[in-house]
Specification:
The chain is of the alpha+beta class. The protein has ten helices and twelve strands.
Length: about 350
């Protein structure tokens, strides 16, 4: 039977661990919230699984626990920040709040960030802005590393480069969080550790042959772009778009000397009230939501659902029943807590 934990207990534990490691309390609060939100939504490779590497990053200098980003450029609707390796979740919260406020007046607001700390699960940021009646788009890459080859190539060039977006429908939130590769580095590492293979070819080996073996990635292989062997040119093209929107706009990327981990981000908020109107937007998105739900399912299949709907259902269930962490995560957190003198929560 899988142990379950109160989400409030997990947040308190993570917050205490980060503060002890030297992170400012306000930043620790946000980072803990974002990581637990990832697990609540079911993205357990990008939730509390990141707590140990975040702690290590605070120790070795790849993440800074205190300070403010450097403002590099600004207009009434755009700011560009040097994130200075500050915690990525805190930077995204700060950026989305600034962009949200700008969008209230001008219809849109955007913050481009270079050299941010790792930001975890992109879906974890969407609902708080969607519930304001606004639309959030989030793009992320990391110029210090690479795992995906360009279409037709065999050597790593860019990262999975996820795109996330969230908006309201008048009744709920639609949330998408999609990598421009079929799988991610974290899931590949997990399958390798478990000794399992992917259900279909999701990688290329060092010679460019499709494979379902995660070990290939650790022997000079690459992640296949979204679309796989038949339509991977589309995923690779979208990956290049994300490179332009993140490292390109922020002014720091793969052309520059590698300075260790440092995400490139674009946070963009649109306010429907300044376009066709908030009521018209809600009516249209609700119509689409109803049309999706009313669409006849494939024979023997599940009814169509909105992007993010399963995650929000899982979140509601786990807030009531407790968070079911992946079996590999709780032992790691418990061990790190014991070493730091911070008690890991007891299961329900």
């Amino acid at each position: 039977m899988t142990d379950r934990f109160r989400d409030t207990d997990l947040r308190a534990f993570a917050r205490a661990m980060f503060i002890q490691a030297g992170m400012e309390a306000a930043k620790a609060e946000v980072v803990a919230e974002v990581l637990v939100e990832g697990d609540l939504l079911g993205h357990d490779t990008h939730g509390l699984a990141h707590l140990p590497p975040y702690l290590d990053a605070l120790t070795n200098g790849d993440m800074r626990g205190a300070g403010e980003p450097e403002l590099l450029n600004q207009t009434p609707v755009v700011q560009t920040w040097n994130g200075r390796k500050l915690p990525g979740p805190w930077l995204v919260h700060q950026a989305s709040d600034w962009a949200s406020k700008a969008a209230e007046t001008f219809g849109l607001g955007a913050v481009s960030i270079q050299r941010a700390g790792h930001i975890g699960c992109l879906a974890a940021y969407l609902q708080r802005i969607a519930e304001r009646g606004q639309l959030l788009l989030l793009f992320s890459s990391d110029p210090s590393t690479a795992s995906v080859a360009p279409w037709g190539g065999t050597r790593r060039l860019f990262t999975p480069n996820p795109i996330a977006a969230g908006w309201g429908t008048g009744g709920s939130s639609v949330m998408m969080d999609i990598s421009m590769s079929i799988t991610t580095n974290a899931m590949t590492a997990r399958r390798r550790a478990e000794g399992t293979r992917f259900p279909a070819p999701t990688l290329l080996d060092a010679d460019g042959a499709p494979t379902d073996d995660p070990n290939a990635f650790f022997n000079d292989g690459t992640l296949l772009p979204l679309g796989g062997t038949q339509a991977g040119h589309k995923g690779a093209a979208l990956g290049m778009l994300v490179e332009a929107l993140t490292s390109g706009l922020s002014g720091y990327g793969r052309k520059d000397p590698n300075a260790g981990w440092g995400a490139s981000l674009l946070v963009l908020v649109l306010d429907p009230a300044r376009f066709g109107g908030a009521e018209a937007f809600a009516a249209e998105t609700q119509w689409m939501a109803d049309a999706v739900h009313g669409n006849p399912p494939v024979k023997g299949g599940e009814a169509p659902r909105l992007p993010g709907e399963r995650g929000l259902t899982r979140k509601a269930e786990q807030r009531f029943k407790g968070v079911a962490l992946h079996p590999s995560i709780a032992p790691l957190l418990r061990a790190r807590g014991e070493a730091a003198g911070v008690a890991f929560p007891a299961p329900l």
